[in-house]
Amino acid sequence: MRNRDIENNDSIEEMLTNLPNIDDHRSKEDVYQRLKYHEVQQDKSPWKKWKVLIPIASSMVTVMLIVIAILNMHPSSNDQSLDMALNESSSEETSRDHRADGNNKGQNNDQSASFSTEESKEVEKQDQASFHYQLAYEDEHSQAKPIYMATATTNGEYVIPITLLDFNETSTVNQYYHAYDRYIDEKRGLTIQQMDHLVFNVNVEAETATVSFTDDYKMEPTTSNVVIFRKMLNAIFMPYGIQQVILKGDHEMKDQVTDNGKLTLEAYDNTYFKQYQELSTFYLVPIYKSNVTNVERALKEMKYDEPLSSIQSTVPSDADIEIHESGQRINIEIQSKNLGHNQATLSMVEAILMTTGAFGYEQVVFDIGLEQIGKYDLTEPVEIPNRINPKLLQ
């Protein structure tokens, strides 16, 4: 066997020796380029393409099957969502979103009038002496002369009525208006819209008023400024019983507000009240929306902060509300874990009083689990106050 292997090896060597010589004269670069070309051609083959596309196509088919299955399982859910989106007021939805994001401007204050800050902590009983009232009755300050003014939030969106109560009566009504900027602090996030650059001539007994523009009045007659100007004049003059204001002077604002120099004031019915708080100062703020046509809807709106502003809710968001009407009296029952002897509950009562008054009611019967909150005896029907955001002048 060994001799045969040797013979085979010798035969192979002889055959290899007799092979012709073959020389490859191609350069290394040429060989490299040919190999690279061959590799690229293999990658472009149809099978290579299908190997890439098959898993992608499978994934897309799987996703489509899942979506179809979900839609078949819940055929009515999309219709309901669309109906809700179309029927809900966009302002209400924005308010809810903004409340959820925590638009609580007064949360660093020791005393808050908003439920936005009360909901996150245990309700504590507050000393009645520290309560801040946003309403007053005429018989509480029967010796005081009321002077009605108005201010606005700095963004020019909301008007805040203010009642000055003068116990000394050393000045006339017009003198107060000529010193407008002395009685409203613009450092608290408010603006008087240059009302101190107007000349007021008011006759309370005759129920007439004239407002003259001066050269120092520089407010531009933009759409928002015109709206705020009209609302401020409403808040100033309507409590006197004045129905029409004469505007004088050469200013474009006058031309935008009226064609003949006479401005007829208009009451804003269906108004509900929220509040503005800056530091320890609280103000009730009237808000008008045409789609709020009854007290029930108004109280629902009062659960939410106004979006992108410092206007806060006056009713707790968890409130369960029942309403019963009886002529000029309305019974309001509210259940909430946030109600108690605190500023927020007092502010809620006052906001509800003004809101129901705006809808034409004269008395409110409260059932909120308390017999007394501040000066309000809740065991008896509560009369609607007639002076909002009072400021006492001693």
Automatic annotation (TrEMBL):
KW Transmembrane (keyword) present: yes
Basic and acidic residues bias: start-end ranges: 93-102
Highest taxon of the lineage: Bacteria
Keywords: Membrane, Transmembrane, Transmembrane helix
Keyword Transmembrane helix: yes
Membrane-spanning segments: 52-71
Annotated stretches, region: Disordered: 81-123
Feature: compositional bias, Polar residues: 104-117
Name of the protein this chain belongs to: Sigma-X negative effector
Species: Gracilibacillus halophilus YIM-C55.5
